[in-house]
Amino acid sequence: MGDNITTITEFLLLGFPLGPKIQMLLFGLFSLFYFLTLLGNGVILGLISLDSRLHTPMYFFLSHLAIVDIACACNTVPQMLVNLLDPAKPISFAGCMMQTFLFLTFAVTECLLLVMMSYDRYVAICHPLRYSAIMTWRVCIILAVTSWTTGVCLALIHLVLLLPLPFCRPQKINHFFCEIIAVLKLACAETHINENMVLAGAISVLVGPLSSIAVSYMCILCAILRIQSGEGQRKAFSTCSSHLCVVGLFYGTAIIVYVGPQYGNSKEQKKYLLLFHSLFNPMLNPLLYSLRNSEVKNSLKRVLGVERAL
């Protein structure tokens, strides 16, 4: 094995082993989805910035979620598009490590932002009279900074454990980006510590936060059922439904990939689940929030009306 250990300067991402025509078709589709991701999340950020009525804690967290979605897509999709055009084009070792670090950072940050958004909804519905006193801008900024800082710190721990490992040839990663589990499989050393850290990190940022979200929404459901007005119940449900859809898509995919069993044919299936997680989730999030949220739709109408008037 010692003869195969060498200084690795680049990796080859195997991506999806398909025919050239299928790859060109996927290149066109994924490019469209990538454009829609940037457009949709950009529109959300623009509306929140331009419309003062959306300067509330709920949309403050939504703007951070849109930033994470844009960053996550920009981290993985361009390299995937390059590989679809030229499957033999490698990615540098430094670029691969950076991609791994950024993916983990954005994934953990999004997990925690979704928790913060559920807490915001819990306070708004269960303690409406105290909402302004509890969800101050200082509290919102602290929660957002905590989410980003935790994401960076946890990703940094994984990177510090990953960098010292020796890697063997052939340096082919069976994935469409430098996903940490796929990279670890190329190591020429014991990776039990790394794998256990990945599992422990996944449980801590997925199972724990998801449990807190579930508790929050149980309290929210009880509070909604106590509302006498049917219109009040409908409005309360509508403000939470979009967030629940995003939570279900994000946590469902991530738990299957990182907490589920890591053996058998599920490895290929998890690659496609991560494709959904990296490409489709960021594209669907702004659609869910805009199509199911009357405030966002009204804000878009107001902004377009101003533009037409100008």
Describe the structure.
It is a single chain. The protein has 310 residues and is mostly helical. The protein has helices at 20-50, 57-85, 93-126, 131-134, 137-162, 180-184, 192-225, 230-258, 266-291, 294-309, and strands at residues 10-13, 91-92, 172-173. Helix 1 (20-50) packs antiparallel against helix 2 (57-85), helix 1 packs parallel to helix 9 (266-291) and helix 2 (57-85) runs antiparallel to helix 3 (93-126). The longest helix is centred in the middle third of the chain and has 34 residues, at 93-126.
Helices and strands in order:
Layout: E1 10-13, H1 20-50, H2 57-85, E2 91-92, H3 93-126, H4 131-134, H5 137-162, E3 172-173, H6 180-184, H7 192-225, H8 230-258, H9 266-291, H10 294-309
Parallel strand pairs: 1-3
Antiparallel strand pairs: 1-2
Helix pairs in contact: 1-2, 1-9, 1-10, 2-3, 2-9, 3-5, 3-7, 3-8, 5-7, 7-8, 8-9
Q: What pattern of helices and strands is seen along the backbone?
A: EHHEHHHEHHHHH
Shape: globular
Main sheet overview: 3 strands, mixed
Number of helices: 10
Query: Looking across the biggest beta sheet, what order are the strands in?
Result: 2-1-3
- How far the N terminus sits from the C terminus, by CA atoms, comes to 70 Å
* Overall pLDDT: 85
Give a brief description.
The chain has 310 residues and is mainly alpha-helical. The chain contains ten helices and three strands, in the order E-H-H-E-H-H-H-E-H-H-H-H-H.
